[in-house]
Amino acid sequence: MDIVQAKDVFTPTKPARIAFVERDAVNDKLVNSLTTPGKQIVVYGHTGTGKTTLLVNKLMQLYGRHITTRCMKGLKFEQLLLDAFDQLAPYYTAERQNSAKTSRALDLGASYELLQAKINASTSTDASEKQARLLPPQLTAQALGRFLGAQRACWVLEDFHKIEEAEKAKLSQLMKVFMDLSDDYPELKIIALGAVDTARQVVDYDREMRNRVAEIHVSLMTEQEITAIIAKGEQALNVKFSPEIKRLVARHSNGLASVCHHLCLNMCHAAGVTQTVDGQPMALTSDHCEQAVKTYVDEASDSIKGAFDKALRQRRKTQYANAPLILEALSALNEGGAARADILRRIQRREPKYPEANLKYLLPKLCTPEYGGVLRYDSNSGLYSFADPIYRAYALAQYHRETVPSRTEFEAFEQTLLRLLTERVKVERARDLTIMFHRTPRRT
Ligand SMILES: Nc1ncnc2c1ncn2[C@@H]1O[C@H](COP(=O)(O)OP(=O)(O)O)[C@@H](O)[C@H]1O
Ligand SMILES: [Mg+2]
Fold first, then answer.
1. pLDDT reading at 320 higher than 90
2. What pLDDT, on the 0 to 100 scale, is given for residue 405?
3. Which end of the chain is more exposed for a tag (fewer CB within 10 A), N or C?
4. Is residue 437 scored above 80 in pLDDT?
5. Atom of ligand 1 nearest to the CA of 57
6. Domains of the chain
7. Rg of the chain taking only CA atoms, in angstroms
């Protein structure tokens, strides 16, 4: 049995490899698009659904080379081109040292170096002492396409939704150029990833390109897929989770694999498993599970509190306490999410005159970072739900402490989570009160 590290098996914060499970729903489409010359690809879906992981694993299985550019707010299209150009340097350097070359490769290699020298020479220093690198006119879309294509590489643009609209339009043009170059360079393609609801929010391309751009939606993971992650982990580490624990973790993860990885890694730590166990499989018990949940809550509590503070902040004077009403209502409804009409009905049980307009306004807001991103909206099902299962548990702890434990199907695991979160909420309330009482008026 191969000895592997627990942190390389359960990977809450990086792409899974050892515990990677195939996503049947998108696999064929992605494989087809990757192997079709000239096909450009847009991968979209909520944060944490597994876009990066899926792509990284598929590229490893199917593709020779790829380069990845991570997009950030404010990044200009020219900087993206330069970044891709820079990342090709090691390949061209390696090629120069290799004597067996075709004349086309020789020409390209020479022009790569020429451009590289130009870019380095044109580095300008502006007043703020920030070094801005200028894109030379020779580094056109065609040129970059040839440089990438000759290395049989594709170009992955991570988090492309963060780029501004005006800059995005240029990517659509670039995709077109890459399509046209695919005769000469069959591997050349762009893969843009975005944490958004539709492919068009990632790249708004022309109608005529429609058939040549694959839109691949990565949805939340199913409970079976999450269970498969645990099973892979068991095998790699020679440990055994009880069926009960598996079921609870899979259910509680609510489609987010990172929650599953987190809990499983914490359980391994609680049991002292840092790598593959020698001999008989090690059984992980409900005690380990409880400890794991405790660590998970401890680690997450600051960020949960931060997110809720943003969500609940009173931004202007209103008749209703809108955000608390919404969060309370949603947490009482099905954990898979609820439609706006259901949330409205639930709120109106308490506030019969509650206007739908308030809901229409605030629900989408609660999905944005400014409001802590506590909710997510799934345009396929039309349902709103908590963005992370732990947010739902936190809301339950805040608003439904008395009613919830009496729910018949309520399970030990969730109770632990709730108990821990309830303790947190109490501590925070006490702290907030202390701060309020001790706050002395500022002297002017
Ligand atoms: N197919 C998969 N198999 C196992 N774990 C996965 C899979 N897809 C995602 N994960 C895990 O889920 C988490 C989020 O995945 P990530 O690829 O970063 O999502 P996204 O790029 O959509 O935000 C990571 O912890 C990753 O290890
Ligand atoms: Mg990602």
1. yes
2. 52
3. C
4. no
5. 1
6. 24-217 (3.40.50.300), 285-431 (no CATH)
7. 26
